[in-house]
Design brief:
The protein is of the alpha/beta class. The protein is 16% helix and 21% strand. It contains 5 helices and 11 strands; from the N terminus they run βαβαββββββαβαββα. A 6-stranded mixed β-sheet has the order 6-10-5-9-7-8. Strands 2-1-3-11-4 form a 5-stranded mixed β-sheet. The longest helix is centred in the first third of the chain and has 10 residues. The protein is elongated.
C-alpha cells in the first residue's frame, strides 16, 4: 500500500430497531485491521444510502428493489400493539386485528408494516414519526402497531404491548448494491450466516509462500480433491437467520 492509499474499511448502515452488536463484535475479532463504521438511517432512506454509496451494506427492512439491490433475509419480527398499561387489551396475552376494531390506530408516516388496510378507527392526522406516535399512545389518544424491536426501542414505563397474531410482519435483511458485491461484503455475509473462520464459502485466504516468495504445496481449500474427480464441499455455516428478540415466538411482557 502506498502512502496515498486509504486503509480498507467497511461501512454498515442499519435501520431503527435492528441491533448489529453481535455481528460487529465478530467482525472486530476476525478483521481487526478493517474498521467497521456503523450508521443508523431511517427505514425509508436505507435503499438510497446504499445506492448513493453512503454504505457498503445495510441491515434494512424488506421489501427492497431486487433489480438494484441484493438482499439476504435474516429474520421476521413479531408485530405488537403498543398500549397504556391500564388499557383493556392488557387482559389478554395476545390479540387479533379484529380486537382493535374500536380503537384509534395511529399510522405514522415512517410505518414499516405496509398495511393494505389499517385496522381500527383512523386518527385525524398521521404522526410524522413512530416516536411521535408513541407519545400520543402515552397521552391516551390511540394505539400503535409496530415490530417488537421498535416497541422495545421506544420503551416507556407507562406503556406495554401485546402480540397481534394476524397483523402484517416486518422482515429484516442484509442488503447491498447489485454491482458492489465486494470481498468485505462477502466477509460480512459469512458472519451473519454463521460461517466459521475456515469456511470454504467465503473469501479464500492467500496461499502460503516460502521464504523465496514461491507458493508452497498444501491442502486445497474449497476446490476439487486430487484424484477424486469430485468437489469438496466446505462448511456451510448457519441457515441465514439472525437472532433477535423480535423473531417469532411470544414476546415477554416488559
Amino acid at each position: 500500500m502506498t502512502g496515498s492509499e486509504a486503509p480498507p474499511s467497511f461501512r454498515l448502515a442499519y435501520v431503527p430497531g435492528v441491533t448489529p452488536d453481535k455481528w460487529v463484535r465478530i467482525w472486530n475479532e476476525r478483521l481487526p485491521d478493517v474498521p467497521l463504521a456503523l450508521t443508523q438511517v431511517p427505514a425509508a432512506g436505507a435503499a438510497g444510502v446504499l445506492l448513493d454509496g453512503g454504505a457498503d451494506a445495510g441491515l434494512v427492512r424488506l421489501p427492497v428493489d431486487r433489480t438494484l439491490l441484493s438482499a439476504i433475509p435474516l429474520y421476521t419480527e413479531t408485530t405488537v400493539v403498543l398500549i397504556p398499561r391500564d388499557h383493556l387489551v392488557t387482559a389478554a396475552d395476545e390479540v387479533t386485528v379484529a380486537d382493535l376494531a374500536d380503537e384509534i390506530v395511529l399510522h405514522p408516516l415512517d410505518d414499516v408494516l405496509g398495511w393494505e388496510r389499517l385496522p381500527g378507527r383512523p386518527a385525524l392526522e398521521r404522526p410524522a414519526t413512530t416516536a411521535d406516535a408513541v407519545e400520543l399512545v402515552a397521552a391516551g389518544i390511540g394505539v400503535l402497531l409496530v415490530p417488537l424491536s421498535l416497541a422495545r426501542l421506544h420503551h416507556r414505563k407507562d406503556l406495554t404491548y401485546r402480540t397481534v397474531t394476524d397483523a402484517p410482519a416486518s422482515g429484516v435483511a442484509l442488503s447491498w448494491p447489485e454491482d458492489a458485491h465486494t470481498d468485505l461484503v462477502e466477509d460480512f455475509i459469512g458472519i451473519v450466516r454463521g460461517r466459521t473462520v475456515n469456511s470454504t464459502r467465503g473469501r479464500q485466504p492467500e496461499p502460503a509462500r516460502s521464504k523465496d516468495g514461491k507458493q508452497t504445496a498444501g491442502k486445497q481449500t474449497g476446490g476439487a480433491r486430487r484424484g477424486t474427480g469430485g468437489s469438496h464441499r466446505g462448511a456451510t455455516g448457519g441457515k441465514g437467520k439472525g437472532r433477535s428478540g423480535g423473531r417469532g415466538g411470544k414476546p415477554r411482557r416488559p
